[in-house]
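Hi everyone, sorry if this is the wrong subforum. Our group has a chain we'd like a structural model of before ordering constructs, and none of us has done structure prediction before. Sequence below.
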Amino acid sequence: MKEIIRIKSISEVHTFLGLKKPKHPLVSVLPIDKRMLNFDYGDHRYTFDFFQISLKIGIKGTLIYGRNSYDFQEGTLTFMKPNQVIKVEKNEEYEANASGWTLLFHPDFIRKSELGLTIEQYSFFNYSVYEALHLSDDEKQTLTELVQKIEKEYHQNIDRYSQEIIIANIEMILKYCKRYYDRQFYTRTNLNKDWIAKFEQLMSDYYHSEKPQALGVLSVKYCANELAMSSNYLGDLIKKETGRSAKDHIQDYIIERAKTQIIGSNASVSEIAYSLGFEYPQSFNKLFKARTGMSPRTYRGMN
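Answer:
Right subforum, don't worry. Here is the predicted structure as tokens:
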């Protein structure tokens, strides 16, 4: 297995890339220019102890993320949180006016702020890189202006307001990105409906096979892997289109299938639970009662 290089601090990034020392130890904006694009990252994988938001314009290339790869397109924004492992392929093509930026900020920088408590709510940090955000020209300009404000702030004499102002701009970037992802889900609604149809077919195929006995109750993670998505992206996609979570859809499917077996067969409740992938009948009973308001045996007695 190839070596994984861990980069722990913003200073280490600057040293690794041959840049001057950062103006701030916990936040930095790196311009994407020809020197950066031609940098040799080697045949390594990398993991970082900080958050990254990157915009690449006029650049094509491949970023390896886990077992998947993502081909950069015009004006794409990617997000990475601490401890994610990536590999950069040395095959990027770029136009003469290629540009962009990477915003780096360490968790310690936001830890005592409100953003430190809420950043987990920005689920796109858990998306795979091939689920990047595709920006319009106006959206690129809006985010770039906020990044420039951050850069300008830490280049000034840092005072007691600096951290608060920088964090406010980071939070504004994340809020805009949340809006832009909503727009992306909305504008791709026909494609999303195709994915929902595939998700529904996947549930059916799973429970018409021997997989429940071998693998257990169907999970969102399993569905996401089969559909080549991250769990968070699949969950957000389904929630945007249906108003309900992927987990709710799976549980509803299980309960409807259970009702059919309870009424249409002489199998015991325990046998039905095992056939649906539950390791313990008690877990099935608890879910059934939570979703229907009655136990499986009571439901059978009423029909």
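For your construct planning: Confidence is low (pLDDT under 50) at residues 62-73. The CA atoms of residues 18 and 61 lie 22 Å apart.
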